[in-house]
């Protein structure tokens, strides 16, 4: 890795920098059906469902959940080995989500890692497929001020993997593809989009190759903390991890 050449580090948002508490809410939903599953089991099922949708139905997860929720919940239950009435399940899940709202929250390592990278001299950018709530998610998690440039698909009218959104980002900050590194969790949006413009991409997958067994891609890291090691920087101090 030629550290001198990289000037700009670009990041995806969902499940790269932030995640939801969906597993806890779904666990409570299943309990209403006398089904007990651990958070780890539910987390893995969500991971597998996400990856299947990314691979087979590109772009769907970024749309209004009402257009795919029954479809997605059925897939989620398949990975959990469950057969439950989808309509009843969704109704109860939505009721519980009002009591315990599903919100996007930064991973505990997100801010320390981004601070570490900024202190090392890198400029930081965001390129995300997201609706108009993106700015609120960033602001609520105190992430907005950490980025030098923010590109949201709903604001610019183009989304990944269209090379135009990456080209727009490069043009705005006046860096080349070779001077950039992108980090995201969706191979079909992030890696393929980056490849079209010549940006190197690190793919996040917390479970080695689980969920992405079909891919022959070697640049995989478990979280954005792996960027620090990839760039050959000093590790983040343990007390702020």
TrEMBL record:
One protein family per Pfam: HAD_2
Domain of life: Bacteria
Gene3D superfamilies attached to this UniProt entry: HAD superfamily/HAD-like, Putative phosphatase, domain 2
Family matches, as CDD domains: HAD_dREG-2_like (cd16415)
InterPro entries reported in the protein's UniProt record: HAD-like_sf, HAD-SF_hydro_IA, HAD_2, HAD_sf, PGP-like_dom2
Designated name of the protein: Noncanonical pyrimidine nucleotidase, YjjG family protein
Natural source organism: Paenibacillus aceti
């Amino acid at each position: 890795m030629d550290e001198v050449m990289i000037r700009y580090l670009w990041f995806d948002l969902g499940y790269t920098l932030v995640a939801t508490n969906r597993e806890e809410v779904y666990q409570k939903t299943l309990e209403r059906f006398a089904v007990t599953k651990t958070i780890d089991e539910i987390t893995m099922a969500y991971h597998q469902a996400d990856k299947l949708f990314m691979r087979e139905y590109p772009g769907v997860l970024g749309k209004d959940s009402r257009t795919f929720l029954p479809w997605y919940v059925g897939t989620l239950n398949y990975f959990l080995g469950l057969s439950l009435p989808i309509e009843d399940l969704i109704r109860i899940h939505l009721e519980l989500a009002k009591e315990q709202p599903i919100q996007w929250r930064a991973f505990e390592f997100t801010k320390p890692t981004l601070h570490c990278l900024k202190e090392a001299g890198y400029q930081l950018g965001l390129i995300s497929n997201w609706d108009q709530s993106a700015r609120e998610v960033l602001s609520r998690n105190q992430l907005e001020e950490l980025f030098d440039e923010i590109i949201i698909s709903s604001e610019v009218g183009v989304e990944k993997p269209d090379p135009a959104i990456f080209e727009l980002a490069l043009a705005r900050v006046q860096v080349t593809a070779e001077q950039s590194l992108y980090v995201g969790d969706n191979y079909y949006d992030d890696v393929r989009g980056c490849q079209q413009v010549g940006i190197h991409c690190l793919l996040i997958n917390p479970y080695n190759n689980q969920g992405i067994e079909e891919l022959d891609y070697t640049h995989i890291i478990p979280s954005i903390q792996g960027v620090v090691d990839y760039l050959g920087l000093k590790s983040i101090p343990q007390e702020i991890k």
